[in-house]
Write a structure and sequence with these properties.
There is one protein chain. The chain has about 210 residues and is α+β, with helices and mostly antiparallel strands. The chain has a single domain, classed as Pnp Oxidase, Chain A, CATH 2.30.110.10. Helices cover about 25% and strands about 35% of the residues. The protein contains 5 helices and 9 strands; from the N terminus they run αββββαββαααβββ. Strands 1, 2, 3, 4, 5, 6, 7, 8 and 9 form a 9-stranded antiparallel sheet that branches. A hairpin with a 2-residue loop joins strand 8 and strand 9. The relative contact order is 0.19. One of its GO terms (biological process) is pyridoxine biosynthetic process.
């Protein structure tokens, strides 16, 4: 296969400064709404990049679960690789790859652990099987077989029965407070449109970048 021959033109539209909101979070919400209306698969899926204690970068896809207090929210096990990375290096990056509409959004900022109250408020809205899964999986730790994981989930179903499932003390939310946000719109002939928001004394400055 000749990978260099795999290419296409980006013809979905353009992006100008006049089209942008002065607030990047409002601009993001606008683009996310358009991604949902375009019926993209998993429009809230984002690549989370972290750096571990040895300085090694790692990426994985997580789901955006909200925008609150000026930040991007996701949830995870506090013992997971991503959580341990954040404990060492809170600086992270998020990437929303909306390829079907020739767009991407890149976020750089600091991840902060959310309060137990905030995490609990979200946990009770999760499907019951997702609540069980949060208890059953010691995320990122080795396991000998999948059967053992399924047995852990079965045992928890029996333990909790039909009662309320409490929030695990090893699980919760993180809020990524952005310092830079880039909006990328693909254009023909690789002359893409890029606009970068950066914090400037509490406000946001906007620059257009060359592709």
């Amino acid at each position: 296969m000749h990978f260099e021959d795999l290419r296409r033109e980006y013809t979905a539209g353009g992006l100008s400064r006049e089209m942008l909101d002065d607030c990047p979070l409002r601009q993001f919400e606008h683009w996310l709404e358009q991604a949902v209306k375009a019926e993209l698969e998993d429009p809230t899926a984002m690549v989370l990049a972290t750096v571990d204690a040895q300085g090694n970068p790692w990426q994985r896809i997580v789901l955006l679960k909200g925008l609150s207090q000026g930040g991007f929210v996701f949830y995870t096990n506090h013992g997971s690789d991503k959580a341990r990375d954040i404990a060492h290096h809170p600086k992270v990056s998020l990437h929303f790859p909306w390829n079907e509409i020739d767009r991407q959004v890149i976020v750089a900022g600091s991840a902060q652990k959310m309060s137990m109250a905030e995490s609990a408020a979200y946990f009770v809205t999760r499907p019951r099987e997702s609540q069980i899964a949060a208890w059953a999986s010691r995320q990122s730790r080795p396991i000998s077989t999948r059967a053992l994981l399924e047995e852990q989930a079965r045992s928890l179903r029996e333990k909790f029965g039909r009662g309320e499932i409490p929030v695990p003390d090893f699980w919760g939310g993180y809020r990524v407070l952005p310092e830079r946000i880039e909006f990328w719109q693909g254009r023909e002939h690789r002359l893409h449109d890029r606009f970068l928001y950066t914090r400037d004394d509490g406000d946001w400055a906007i620059q257009q970048l060359q592709p």
